[in-house]
Specification:
The N terminus and C terminus are likely disordered. The chain is 45% helix and 10% strand. With 358 residues, the protein is α/β, with parallel strands linked by helices. It folds into two domains: 178 residues, Zincin-like; 100 residues, no CATH class. Helix 1 packs antiparallel against helix 4.
Length: 358
Amino acid sequence: MRLVVILTLIVLAPLAWALFKALRRKSAPSGPVGSRESAPASIELAGSEPFEIAAHLYESTGAPILDFEALDDWAAQATSQEAGRRARQAGHRAWLLHMRDWLGTHAELVETPDAWVLSGYAPGQARALGEFVSTSRRRINQLLEPLARFPEQERSTLITFDNGDDYYRYVANFYPDEGEFALSGGMFIKAGCPHFVAVLNNLWILEPVIAHEMTHFALAHLSLPLWLDEGLEVNTEHRVSASSQHHTRTIELLKQHQEFWNDATIQEFWTGESFHRTDEGNSLSYDLARAIVNLAGRDWDAFVRFATTARREDGGAAAAREALGVDLGELAVAAINAKAKGPWNPRPEAWKRVSAKA
């Protein structure tokens, strides 16, 4: 099984080695000492009026958010697909420079061939993160082939915030206005310019967060049921990041699962609602998703057929029966060694709503 075997690929560039190289690299300065590129007021496109960045920025919870739909409409006027792609990329970069100014004078935008890293890290550390992003893209593609898909010729974008207050103030833009939400260490934001965000932290702590959120990015094109999406991400995070914590399925943990899951809570799991709980159901949801994906992924070719046909509307139930030849309820019971007292299969007819991932 592709998801449970240990990768035999030699890790050529883990984060620590990338950091070591970055700190030793003697990079040529990009400009005069003390220079700082200004955030552009507008960007150009041949044959069209300039796109006024400032006129299309709006502030929500303090952060400057770009009207990306307006940017896409403007870029669509380009004479070629490649020119349009470059125009959108120029708009994304311009927005990141405005975000840099909002974060503070200590923040910098570092660019690598595969990544934009906007953070308050020292330049060497920021470049190490960019190199880790590049390495992670390659590993995720290898591990999840053919499911993973990163947009060609587009950089992955990482923004780190100095503290939790700024982080939650920013991500509030992408949550519903009401409700309780679990704490998070990072988030993939698909809206507008796809990017992932985290809180500035020790690089070893940040590494698995990046791997997890990048896997969200690579699988976003599939619109998976949330439990399946998160199960793939947790498994991939453990294999991509050397510093990821590998949780042992202890007797105590299995007992927690067996006490928590019942006919009602398992339906929350299939809809994705349990992942937003603020109690132990949150962490148990991620662990159950990981365990089910481990079981389902033993036959990788069959799992690929399942993942590419699974629908959120029924939690993936029909696709599991067709591609895997099993009911999802049976997999959930086996994953926690439980004795189900009722039907644990997804029951869409009983759901009030199907939770979509932010």
